[in-house]
Design brief:
Elements: H1 5-15, H2 17-32, H3 36-39, H4 42-53, H5 57-84, H6 99-112, H7 115-120, H8 130-136, H9 141-175, H10 178-222, H11 224-230, H12 241-268, H13 281-284, H14 291-300, H15 303-319, H16 323-350, H17 366-384, H18 392-411, H19 417-441, H20 448-467, H21 471-477, E1 485-488, H22 489-494, H23 510-513, E2 517-520, H24 523-532, E3 536-537, H25 546-551, E4 565-566, E5 569-570, E6 573-578, E7 584-597, E8 601-616, E9 620-625, H26 630-641, E10 654-657
Parallel strand pairs: 1-7, 2-10
Antiparallel strand pairs: 2-8, 3-6, 4-5, 6-7, 7-8, 8-9
């Protein structure tokens, strides 16, 4: 079977650690080079290097040194370029298009002098510019080195340590089920991507707005009819010119995405029932730790919550005397929801949705369209009252909230990707259209911070009230179920065992995630059989057990074993055996959903591993699998189930049965 990604990375690090050291040097060098560093996402690349390092302190120190040397090399090259070509630097692209970066560096030097080299190293947007600017200003080389060397030494671990801690936490997260690791990665990297993309679009629009506006004005001059409508929106010097231009671009892009999804969906002919299968991507992420959180988030994006927040916020606007804002505030969610209903009804005539989960077949998804419109128009409304430098923040917050709420629906199998994309695109397009009308008519108001606090507080309070008692219902309605399969004994012994899942998760190291055995037996009978040979049933800890792990314990008898998930459910049975030589062995079993006939004897999927207590990050203690202890663990299991063993492969998984006892 194929090796997992973590297996491959670990093998590379163990056999060629120099590659990782070279990557640390190269990424830090690129991040620090003038102009090049503007486009290189150094924080992400060095985070990945740190994640692969894990808890190897020796390798971390060497990578720290390599990253520091790489950063210093980049600074020196940038300094030399600035010193050598000082008269040409301002005209070099992209600095010629982004003079604010050079201006920010000059302000930094004007305020702090040579200390600006040290300070600039820790300010992302101007990091690649400060050494270049030091050279153009004729700063002495020794003075530059005096500030650059300590800055590079301190800067490198700030980028490596977060990744290192994250990499070390992957094994702990795997104790809850490897799916939790992927969920964390999606939330962290997905949130970063949404923020990065929103900022990129906003700043790109800000830089190019002048050229776009001149083009629109020239075009509107040649079109008398349309020009009378557009020209008032783009009057040169108007405070809302940039905002209207940004909303116009958002409108065009949203309509393009919406049309692409609507046109392609009928031809793709999606198998909607796959959204609830265990092989589906959304189902592969499920785990019992994250399920309650995403159930609550999905309820927070229900139409009832959005409608309640809209009405309550409308009452606030009415009390504040903002009648013009009130009408636009009501028009944004109402129009988006009506359009979503009409479009989803039209798409329903072209494609057949699933009967079990009707919302999966909604294209566009109505709930996300309404929620996106509420969050999106509030960002437009709040940005109107903020200064130019702070206007991007409402858009960033709304973008992250929409992404998280949309992901919660997909995670639980309540919506398809096509439905979510169409719903969000529809709402963004309609919100942009209403926003253009609002921004061109309204006037700025004071106290935007209090208004934002009221809005987000309303969302939290209404969501909590609505979700009270509904989370358990939502979890039951979206609970995953193993396929209902049955085999006759000989069929299972010959080929049926191959049709059952072979791994707990597709994440992580293959030899740690695979199943070691299958057993057909009554679970109580199985526990009794193992107990006769010295195995003790233990109660696997969950979230509450983390406190014991963080405190650390030298007594292995009190160190808890955390639950692991398979198909979104924790293990059904966990048993432990301490051998006479002091070794500890752990067996876990999960339901396969299959049965042996006649009699309906359930078939269980199991892992048995030798484990040992380890301490990480000084205060963190946990159980870790012994990589070369697999054969010893199976031998211990044979002591209890040897009489049950039947024919089958000599390697894993081994087959056991008690139905004839």
């Amino acid at each position: 079977m194929e090796e997992g990604l973590l297996d491959s990375l670990t093998a590379v690090v163990q056999s060629h650690p120099g590659w990782l050291i070279g990557l640390a040097f190269g990424f830090a060098l690129l991040e620090s080079l003038a102009i090049v560093g503007i486009f290189v996402p150094g924080i992400v690349l060095l985070f990945m290097v740190g994640a692969v390092i894990g808890m190897d302190p020796g390798l971390f120190l060497i990578c720290w040194l390599a990253a520091s040397v790489g950063a210093l090399t980049g600074d020196l090259v940038s300094y030399w370029l600035g010193y050598r070509f000082s008269d040409r630097v301002p005209g070099v692209w992209p600095l010629s298009r982004r003079p604010e970066m050079m201006a920010a560096g000059q302000v930094l030097f004007a305020r702090h002098g040579g200390k600006g080299v040290f300070i600039g190293r820790f300010i992302g947007p101007i990091r690649p510019v400060v050494p270049l600017l030091s050279g153009t200003m004729g700063m002495r080389p020794l003075a530059f080195l005096a500030w650059s060397v300590p800055a590079c030494i301190l800067w490198a671990p700030l980028y490596l340590l977060p990744g290192m801690l994250f990499g070390a936490s992957l094994e702990l997260a795997a104790d809850f089920g490897g799916r939790l690791v992927l969920v964390l990665l999606i939330l962290v990297l997905g949130g970063w991507f949404v923020i990065w993309l929103t900022r990129l679009v906003y700043e790109f629009t800000a830089r190019r707005s002048g050229w776009w506006l001149r083009s629109v004005i020239r075009w509107s001059t040649d079109q008398p009819g349309v020009g009378r409508l557009l020209r008032p929106l783009f009057e040169p010097g108007g405070r809302e010119v940039l905002s209207v231009a940004l909303l116009g671009i958002l409108l065009v892009v949203s309509l393009a995405v919406l049309m692409a999804v609507l046109i392609s969906t009928p031809f793709l002919a999606p198998a909607w029932d796959a959204e609830y299968r265990l092989v589906n991507l959304s189902a592969s992420l499920r785990n019992h730790v994250a399920d309650p959180l995403f159930a609550w988030l999905s309820l927070a994006a229900e139409p009832r919550v959005a409608v309640t927040v809209t009405l309550l916020m409308g009452l606030v606007l009415l009390l504040l005397g903002r009648r013009l804002t009130l009408w636009h505030w009501l028009a944004a969610p109402l129009g988006a929801y009506v359009l979503a209903i009409l479009l989803s009804a039209l798409m329903g005539l072209l494609i057949d949705g699933p009967e079990s989960v009707p919302t999966v077949g909604q294209v566009p998804h109505r709930g996300m369209a309404l929620t996106t419109a509420v969050l999106g128009f509030f960002a437009v409304m709040l940005a109107k009252d903020l200064g130019a430098r702070r206007r991007k923040w409402p858009y960033l917050v709304s973008a992250v909230l929409v992404a998280v709420l949309g992901f919660s629906h997909y995670y639980l199998g309540l919506a398809s990707l096509a439905g979510l994309l169409a719903g969000i695109a529809l709402a963004m397009g309609w919100t942009a259209l209403v926003g253009i009308a609002y921004r061109s008519r309204s006037t700025s108001r004071r106290r935007p911070v209090w208004l934002s606090l009221a809005f987000y507080s309303l969302i939290v309070v209404v969501a909590i009230v609505h979700a009270r008692g509904e989370v358990a219902v939502r979890l039951d309605a979206t609970r995953l179920a193993q396929p209902d399969r049955s085999y006759f004994f000989l069929d299972w012994q010959d080929e049926g065992w191959r049709q059952l899942p072979d791994r707990v998760t597709r994440l992580g190291r293959h030899h740690r995630s695979r199943f070691d055995f299958q057993v057909a037996a009554n679970l109580n009978r199985l526990a009794e059989q193992l107990a006769d040979e010295g195995w003790l049933e233990v109660e696997a800890g969950s979230g509450a057990a983390l406190w014991s792990l963080l405190l650390g314990s030298d007594d292995i008898a009190t160190l808890p074993h955390l639950s692991r998930d398979f198909a979104g459910r924790p293990d059904d049975l966990v048993m432990r055996r301490e051998a006479p030589d002091g070794s500890v062995y752990l067996a876990r079993l999960w339901s396969s959903g299959a049965r042996l006939e006649p009699g309906g004897v359930p078939i269980w999927l199991g892992q048995v591993r030798q484990v040992q207590p380890v301490r990480q990050l000084v205060v963190l203690s946990r159980w870790d699998e012994v990589d070369d202890g697999g054969d010893r663990a199976l031998a211990q299991l044979e002591l209890g189930l040897g009489a049950w063993r039947i024919g089958g492969p000599e390697a894993r998984p081994r087959l056991y049965v008690s139905m004839f006892d």
